[in-house]
DNA sequence: AAACCGTGGGG
DNA sequence: TCCCCAAGGTT
């Protein structure tokens, strides 16, 4: 190791923090460096809630959900007192719905222990919905612990700085070790957020803005002229297609027939219109004869929705239907529909049958 | 440990 | 249009 390498990592961390002080993003859940310097402390509840929402989810998508949640449930105790269904409804559209189920389970646990979050990585890691990343993020941001926070941004920044040829996810161990050597003891939370801000705004996956980067003199990948090649990742498997049919039954007063999905698995605990099973592509027309009950079904259209590991083609049928809801089903009136726990794929299906039905009305 | 689990935006 | 992927966790 060359002599100057000995100070490389601390120097990088110092430059990154200097950049963060001047260029950090203002985010609803963030306590900025100036406020921290004045002695203000982040609210662990807000840090936790934001970190759960931000798992595999963009900052822009999270903002409105975060504001709605903290407005309605300002504390972990308030969230613990909420009904499961209300939380699922409020989470609808954000995706990865097990996060909402774990959110409630975690709030219940924390509330039952005096409403105080654990202040160590290990303690946080034991809570539902909190894995290695989230435990480190909360420990460093909310409790000033020198934890190594490694998310997708950090993996990209580090793999470029050190031009790591090992593909992800195999390189995770190596990356974590490097981050552990860089975390400054005095500002671990800011260091974590600075690395993530750099990855989100400068060291982006494509066309990184290296000319604006505070670490351009430190970056092995930039020196080699190929930062965009990192991180190296394994090729992804092909996405299969499944097919099925969705049935939008409409009562004379405009109510739509709905039911609740099972507690676990895809879209668990969320609300749906009746559908057939979603089977592997059959290369054929799904017949209205597969409807859960007989009616004058007419074809309203077709939607395609891409999930994480498969694409779904749904034939959408529409029919009038009178009488009480069949077992396991319920009617949702027009003014209630927008507030139901409908995942995006189900809103698409309903919109295909009844344009505008799931949009929230004004007033 | 490989599979499963949503969604929307950017290039 | 299509592909990538975002402050990952659970089983």
TrEMBL record:
UniProt superkingdom: Bacteria
Cofactor: [4Fe-4S] cluster
TM region positions: none
Pfam families assigned to the protein according to its UniProt record, in alphabetical order: EndIII_4Fe-2S, HHH, HhH-GPD, NUDIX_4
Family matches, as InterPro entries: A/G_AdeGlyc_MutY, DNA_glycosylase, Endonuclease-III-like_CS2, Endonuclease3_FeS-loop_motif, Endouclease-III_FeS-bd_BS, HhH-GPD_domain, HhH_base_excis_C, HhH_motif
Keyword set includes Transferase: no
The record's free-text note on cofactor binding: Binds 1 [4Fe-4S] cluster.
Keywords: 4Fe-4S, DNA damage, DNA repair, Glycosidase, Hydrolase, Iron, Iron-sulfur, Metal-binding
Catalysed reaction equations from the record: Hydrolyzes free adenine bases from 7,8-dihydro-8-oxoguanine:adenine mismatched double-stranded DNA, leaving an apurinic site
Residue ranges annotated for the HhH-GPD domain, each copy included: 53-201
GO molecular function (one): hydrolase activity, acting on glycosyl bonds
EC number: 3.2.2.31
Keyword DNA repair part of the UniProt annotation: yes
Sequence similarity: Belongs to the Nth/MutY family.
Entry function: Adenine glycosylase active on G-A mispairs. MutY also corrects error-prone DNA synthesis past GO lesions which are due to the oxidatively damaged form of guanine: 7,8-dihydro-8-oxoguanine (8-oxo-dGTP).
PANTHER family on file: ADENINE DNA GLYCOSYLASE
Protein's name in the database: Adenine DNA glycosylase
Species for this entry: Aquamicrobium terrae
């Amino acid at each position: 190791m060359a002599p100057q390498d000995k100070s490389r990592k601390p120097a990088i961390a110092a430059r990154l923090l200097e950049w963060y002080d001047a260029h950090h993003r203002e985010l609803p859940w963030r306590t900025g460096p100036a406020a921290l310097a004045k002695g203000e402390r982040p609210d662990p509840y807000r840090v936790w809630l934001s970190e759960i929402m931000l798992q595999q989810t963009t900052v822009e998508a999270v903002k409105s959900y975060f504001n709605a949640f903290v407005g309605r449930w300002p504390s972990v105790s308030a969230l613990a007192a909420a009904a499961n269904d209300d939380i699922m409804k409020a989470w609808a559209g954000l995706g990865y719905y097990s996060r909402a189920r774990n959110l409630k389970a975690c709030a219940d646990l924390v509330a039952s222990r005096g409403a105080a979050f654990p202040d160590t990585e290990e303690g946080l890691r034991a809570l539902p919905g909190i894995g290695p990343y989230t435990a480190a993020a909360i420990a460093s941001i909310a409790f000033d612990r020198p934890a190594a926070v490694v998310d997708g941004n950090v993996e990209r920044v580090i793999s470029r700085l050190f031009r790591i040829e090992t593909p992800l996810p195999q390189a995770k161990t190596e990356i974590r070790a490097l981050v552990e050597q860089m975390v400054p003891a005095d500002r671990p939370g800011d260091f974590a957020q600075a690395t993530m801000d750099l990855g989100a705004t400068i060291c982006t996956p494509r066309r990184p803005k290296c000319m604006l980067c505070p670490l351009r003199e430190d970056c092995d990948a930039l020196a080699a002229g190929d930062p965009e090649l990192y991180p190296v990742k394994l090729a992804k498997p092909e996405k299969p297609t499944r097919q099925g049919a969705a049935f939008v039954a409409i009562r004379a007063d405009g109510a739509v027939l709905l039911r609740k999905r099972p507690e676990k698995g895809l879209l668990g605990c969320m609300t749906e219109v009746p559908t057939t099973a979603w089977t592997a592509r059959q290369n054929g027309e799904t017949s209205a004869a597969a409807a859960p009950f007989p009616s004058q079904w007419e074809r309203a259209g077709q939607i395609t929705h891409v999930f994480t590991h498969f694409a779904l083609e749904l034939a959408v049928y529409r029919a009038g239907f009178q009488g009480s809801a069949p077992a396991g089903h319920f009617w949702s009136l027009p003014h209630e529909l927008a507030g139901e726990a409908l995942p995006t794929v189900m809103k698409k299906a309903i919109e295909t049958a009844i344009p505008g039905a799931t949009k929230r009305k004004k007033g």
